[in-house]
Amino acid sequence: PSPLHSVPEMRLMEFFTGLWFTKACLTRYMAEFREVFSKAKHIAIITGAGVSAESGLPTFRAASGHWRKWKTQDLATAQAFSRNPSRVWEFYHYWRELALKATPSEAHRAIAECEARLSKQGRSVVVITQNVDELHRRAGSKHVLEVHGSLFRTRCLSCGDVDASHHSPICPALEGKGDPDPNCRDAAIPVKNLPRCDEGGCDGLLRPHVIWFGETLDSHILTKVEKELDACDLCLLVGTASVVFPAAMFAPQVASRGVPVAEFNIRPRANMYHFQGPCATTLPVALERHESEVI
């Protein structure tokens, strides 16, 4: 698998040009989408940071997406962690604490409700998310593939053990740390006081079990994603700018074989079946019970 990196949006546009609709009347396209939705048997929903932004979580890829003076790309790398594990853990502690306090958005809930409803009709919904906050699971979604990992899992650098942790804070030394103010100085927490592995007395340093820039996606997860994309007969892009590879290629891959693709996002994109606006507003309308549904 190719490592995680950003790609120019214009390259992605080449995949969509001529495949789908130009921007037009929202009402008309919503009616068209609803008809397609009513017939779909296997729906793949690809979600990004915009879904969780409506739960109050920062969109770190936005222009204002900084923690202190650093961009995500400055912190979310193995090299950054090797140089300054305390700083990186402060950043992830801040993000974890926000996620723990957040509640799922209307978009999260609409997706979960849709999955539960359609499953009774013998239809399926899979969420393929780039988010690491687990809000889809907390909303009630059952079939979730987290391609970039989770804030609430750790991996030991010594023994490789992967474990879940929803403790707040994840370790005592991080309590009260992670202030995003640019004027705030690093806590410079000693490595021995950062999260440590408790598997069989290992005591190795833990890192967040997320995919950092330059790292490849988990091959097992990617295999599952490919299987779902090959099987889907409708694909939704929700709250994602689709600029991080390889996830940026998921929707173009589906569109290239003629499967309908609909996008729900703030930013308009040329030549796509697009519903512009907050996905917490547009998505619940799109996924509500269709008049043809009998269960």
From TrEMBL:
It catalyses: N(6)-glutaryl-L-lysyl-[protein] + NAD(+) + H2O = 2''-O-glutaryl-ADP-D-ribose + nicotinamide + L-lysyl-[protein]. Binds 1 zinc ion per subunit. GO terms for molecular function: histone deacetylase activity, NAD-dependent; NAD+ binding; protein-glutaryllysine deglutarylase activity; protein-malonyllysine demalonylase activity; protein-succinyllysine desuccinylase activity; zinc ion binding. It is found in: Cytoplasm, Cytosol; Mitochondrion; Nucleus. NAD(+) binds at residues 48-67, 130-133, 279. Keywords: Cytoplasm, Metal-binding, Mitochondrion, NAD, Nucleus, Transferase, Transit peptide, Zinc. The active site is at H148. It is an enzyme of class 2 (transferase). The keyword Cytoplasm applies. It comes from the Eukaryota. Residues 23-293 form the Deacetylase sirtuin-type domain. Belongs to the sirtuin family. Class III subfamily. NAD-dependent protein deacylase. Catalyzes the NAD-dependent hydrolysis of acyl groups from lysine residues. Has weak NAD-dependent protein deacetylase activity; however this activity may not be physiologically relevant in vivo. PANTHER family: NAD-DEPENDENT PROTEIN DEACYLASE SIRTUIN-5, MITOCHONDRIAL-RELATED. This is NAD-dependent protein deacylase sirtuin-5, mitochondrial. It comes from Astyanax mexicanus (Blind cave fish).
